[in-house]
Amino acid sequence: MTGPGLSAPPILHRRIRADLEAEIRSGAWPTGFRIPTERDLMARYGCARMTVSRAMASLAQAGLVERRKKAGSFVARPPIRAAVLEIPDIPAVIRARGEAYRFQRLSRRLEAAGAFAVDETGAESTPPVLAVRGLHFASDVPFALERRVINLEAAPQAADLAFDSEPPGTWLLRNVPWTRARHRITAINADAATARRLGVRRDFACLALERWTWGAAWWITFARQIFPADRYDLVASFGP
To answer: How far is 203 from 211, CA to CA, in rounded Å?
Structure first.
């Protein structure tokens, strides 16, 4: 297992991107703020122009920065987004029902990108991914078993987080904007290991929800959540 603070140091262009993104998302650099020049950033980080340019291109692809020829780079105006199908936050769902919420991390480790290396848009992801397994509890009763994979290219800050009490999905919803998602819902019977974690008998009917989420430039996360069929239902309201 790789604990917080023990992961490999980020590649420099990802560190520069993360630092600049943090300034933008915190509001320290508001819309229209002129970002330090590439020359200034080269001096600050002691790196080549190509490294800075790659970080700035990444921010521009994500819609956070607007690059103007001969004028420099500026914090972009946030795009207007509307979600047709919301991504639910499990802790919020449980608390809204008047129940106490708790998250138990089962494992946390860096893995090779593997099948997640290239998403359906053809965007490559070369760094390792962070894989987190955990249990969501409602009033101390197992509510969902989750395995989540996070693309550290899209969310480099996640490499230093433990996720020992806050679930990664909640952190991602708060810190990493998404532009597109895909859900797949299936009915399954719990195998022995899943049944043991969820406190149900083997072959108990369960709902399996798989979700892929993308940002402007990369895929962000994949999650597989398994719910005992008698503990969760999915409701979506639609308009014209």
So the answer is: 23
* Cβ partners under 8 Å of residue 71, min gap 6: none
Whether the Cβ atoms of residue 161 and residue 171 lie closer than 8 Å to each other: yes
Distances in whole angstroms, Cα of residue 97 to Cα of each of 85, 167, 173: 20, 18, 20
Q: What is the pLDDT of residues 74-132, one digit of tens each?
A: 998 765 444 445 678 999 989 988 899 999 999 999 987 665 544 444 445 556 789 99
121 in a structural domain:
yes
Same domain assignment for residues 120 and 197? yes
pLDDT band at 60 (very low <50, low <70, confident <90, very high): confident
Q: Do residues 26 and 136 share a domain?
A: no
**pTM for the full predicted model:** 0.64
Residues 115 and 215 in one domain: yes
Would residue 6 count as lying in a domain?
no
Per DSSP, 34 falls in state B
Amino acid identity, residue 219?
W
Query: What 3-state DSSP class applies to 106?
Result: strand
Whether residues 218 and 150 share a domain: the answer is: yes
Backbone torsions φ then ψ of 139, nearest 5 degrees: 50, 45
Supply the range of the domain harboring residue 187.
90-228
Q: How large is the greatest C-alpha to C-alpha distance in the chain, in angstroms?
A: 66
Which CATH number fits the domain that encloses residue 46?
1.10.10.10
For residue 217, CA distances in Å to 4, 100, 126, 142 come to 26, 36, 14, 35
- Helix, strand, coil shares, percent, the chain, to 5: 25, 30, 40
